[in-house]
Every structure is written in structure tokens, then in C-alpha cells.
Amino acid sequence: MIIQLRQLFDIIGESVDIDYSIDKDELRDIKAYTFASPIAVKGKIINRAGVVKLTYDCRAEFELECDRCLAKFVREYCYSFEHILVRSTESDEDMYVVCKDNVLDMNELAVSDLLLQLPTKILCKDDCKGLCFSCGHDLNQGECDCVKEK
Ligand SMILES: [Zn+2]
Ligand SMILES: [Zn+2]
Q1: Of the chain's two ends, which shows fewer C-beta atoms within 10 Å, N or C?
Q2: Residue 146: nearest ligand to its CA?
Q3: Would residue 148 count as lying in a domain?
Q4: Strands (E), 6-133
Q5: Residues with Cβ within 5 Å of ion ligand 2?
Q6: What is this structure's pTM?
Q7: What residue numbers bound the domain in which 44 lies?
């Protein structure tokens, strides 16, 4: 979704609500993750005293595989983000998003924000016991018969 920002930049007090979702079809190019749902994006852009601020929530379900036991599962992640929108680079802070020609590519921003927030280590549960190194048994389902070396 492309958002036109000219009015938002020019008129103090101007605001726009954002409430839409990014289709799974549009996410096919992202090879590192499998989406189990569209990405829901909901938020607001407001010009307060000349500062244009975007705040939004991003919610999506992913098909994941546990790093320890390889179990497949679907998990929903939801994060909140905040950015200051500017027309040209005034600072290289992460919080600033440069909107060239007064437009914001909301899809691009939401996808990159979301993917950066995802945990690097994916576990089916915090205390996942993983697989036995010798026999491959899923230790979440109980101990295996392998002799434990001391
Ligand atoms: Zn696991
Ligand atoms: Zn074993």
C-alpha cells in the first residue's frame, strides 16, 4: 500500500488511519519465512506540531520449525512500531523513515520492521528438550533408551 503524505507533511493536525492487510501473495518473495496468514497492519500517521509520526501494530502468523526438536508449528507475532516520517534525510537514526516524493511504501516498511523483530532462535516452547543426539528421539515425549554418558 502506497500512502500519499503531501497533506500530512503540509498540514499541522492532519492525520490518517491505516487498517489493511498485506496478502500472502505479496509475500512470496520472502524466502526465509513462510507466512501462515496475511500481515495485518493497523495504525495512524499524524502531524503534530510539524512532526509527522507513524505508529502502528503489525500482526502475522508464521509457519515455523523448532530449532531444537524440528517440530513444525504456527505462531502469531504482533509488534508495535513507531517512526518519524521525513521528506529528506535529516538524520540516520533508525526511527526516521525518508519518504521520497511524499510517498510511503507501507508494505515495504511493515515487512522489514516485522522481519527484523522476529526472534533469531525459534523454539516450539522455551524449555524444549530437543532431540537425542544418538537416536533422534524427541525428548519432549519422554526419555529414550540411550545410555546417558557421564
Ligand atoms: Zn522444540
Ligand atoms: Zn536416544
Answers
A1: C
A2: 2
A3: no
A4: 15-22, 34-35, 39-48, 51-65, 72-86, 96-98, 103-105
A5: 132, 134-135, 137, 144, 146
A6: 0.86
A7: 2-141
pLDDT tens digit at each of 150 positions of the chain: 999 999 999 999 999 999 999 999 899 888 889 999 999 999 999 999 999 999 999 999 999 999 999 999 999 999 999 999 998 876 666 678 999 999 999 999 999 999 999 999 999 999 999 999 999 999 999 999 996 654
Name residue, grid cell 518473495. 29
Instruction: Give the separation between CA 117 and CA 85, rounded to whole angstroms.
Output: 20
147 part of a folded domain: no
In a domain, 70, yes or no: yes
Between the CA of 18 and the centroid of ligand 1 the distance, in Å, is 36
Answer whether residue 9 is part of any domain: yes
Least distant ligand from the CA of 126: 1
Q: State the pairing for strand pair 34-35/51-65.
A: antiparallel
